[in-house]
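Narrative of activities, Objective 1.

The group set out to show that a structural description can be obtained from nothing but a protein's sequence at a throughput compatible with the screening campaign. Below is one input-output pair from the validation batch, recorded exactly as produced.
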Amino acid sequence: MGRALLAEGLGTMFLLAIVVGSGIMGEQLAGGNVALALLANSLATGLGLAVLIFLFAPLSGAHFNPAVTLVFCLQGAMPWRRAPAYIGIQIAAGIIGVWLAHGMFAEPWLQLSTTQRPGGALMLSEIV
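Output recorded for this entry:
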């Protein structure tokens, strides 16, 4: 279980660092071209996730997300007693991964969003 949690934590940390870091990088390097920034972010995230799954799936299942862990439990592929530890490490490692990305790009450690995104379309996209 210890090795699985270490793998899950490292994978989650690196995934969040990739997602946030590629978003920051895309904004900085795209020169205002939103499509180019989105493309850079999407490619980095997709390729990074593929590498992380390849590396960590044999050790932890490569969930990297509490929702994925819950689905594994619902399907019976993972015992429910493991879920709290997985989810706890995913949350902690996700925060560390975001801080790591912020540190790499000299961004403030804590940032609050000022963009409001209300509406049913956003909720639908989150569900999908």
